[in-house]
Amino acid sequence: MRGQRGIFCHCEELIKFYAIVSPRNNRNKKTTNTIEGGDLLRKFFLMVVALGLGIIAQETAAQGLRPLKPLSSGLRPLRPLVARQDMAKQHWLAKLEEERARNLKIAQIRTINLATRASEDSIQLAEYNSRQMEVGVRMPTYYPPATFPASGDEISLFLWALVYKVPESGGNYYAENKKTGAYGKYQFILAPHRPV
Amino acid sequence: MIEPIPFNQERVARFMAETLFGQYGNWRDVASVWFSGEPYYSYKNPAAISDGRTNLKDYCDTILQVMNGN
Predict the structure, then answer these.
(1) pLDDT over threshold 70, residue B2
(2) The pTM is what?
(3) Where is average pLDDT lowest: A61-65, A145-149, B38-42?
(4) Which of A86, A144, A157, A170 is the most buried (most CB within 10 A)?
(5) Number of neighbouring beta carbons within 10 Å of residue A184
(6) A35: Cβ contacts below 8 Å, ≥ 6 apart
(7) Interchain proximity A192–B5, CB inside 8 Å
(8) How far is Cα A32 from Cα A78, in angstroms, rounded to an integer?
(9) Is A161 on the interface with B (CB under 8 A)?
(10) Are the Cβ atoms of B4 and A188 closer than 8 angstroms?
(11) What is the DSSP letter of B40?
């Protein structure tokens, strides 16, 4: 029953509305003025909204927002394929050269370190000299005095004193005393080199 | 025969020094044996033992002074 009443009420409202909006069916001037007044209000409201939007847009522009760049401005022009290949080759060659220079520097540092370490230890010095002789480097007859083995054991101290502080070979592995037959850095009579 | 190349010279010298120190127990005798073939205590007058450039006493004294850091 409630539904029938609802439908009835709805129809009644439609009839009233039709009576209001149709000028032919209802010539009442009061009603017509009401409708015209509503249109003016709506137009005024739209104008206010448009004006507000315009003000907001102007403020936004005044606050320094930059306009968007066109999308194509960020793209670089394409280079020809051959030029790109040349560039890659040059880059690779440069890297190769850099690596070679680095390896050379490492080898130099290693050689310097080896020579420095060898000068501090007589056995390592001897090994170093032997390797140099193996690869064909001619050994000098003069050997600069090795540094004092401050942190060495007693044997190292004894041997260092024996070579550099008393009149012996002065560090020359090929020194030979023709009077006594002593030979080498430690002036052995060659008997110690014979197998036991 | 072991070739007297630098490496072997170093090995032999170290071996001889170790052996002589083990035998005599002090570096003066080791130096004396290195110089003359006999320990220091076996000479009554070490200063008289000379090779023409230095004598046994100076030789041993110098080596011991260096070893002691003097």
Answers:
(1) no
(2) 0.45
(3) A145-149
(4) A157
(5) 25
(6) A20, A21
(7) no
(8) 70
(9) yes
(10) yes
(11) G
Measured distance between the N- and C-terminal CA atoms of chain A, rounded to whole angstroms: 134
Please tell me if residue B3 touches chain A, with a CB cutoff of 8 Å.
yes
Residue A196 pLDDT level (bands cut at 50, 70, 90) = very low
Q: Which residues contact A83 (CB under 8 A, 6 or more apart)?
A: none
Alpha-helical segments (H) within chain A = 2-21, 29-62, 81-120, 122-134, 154-164
Give A24-55 pLDDT, tens digit per residue.
Answer: 555 555 555 555 567 888 888 899 999 999 88
Element (H, E) at B31: helix B27-36
Interface test with A, best of B10, B27, B53 (most A CBs within 10 A): B10
Task: Please state the rounded mean pLDDT for residues A53-69.
Answer: 76
**Whether residue B26 has pLDDT greater than 90:** yes
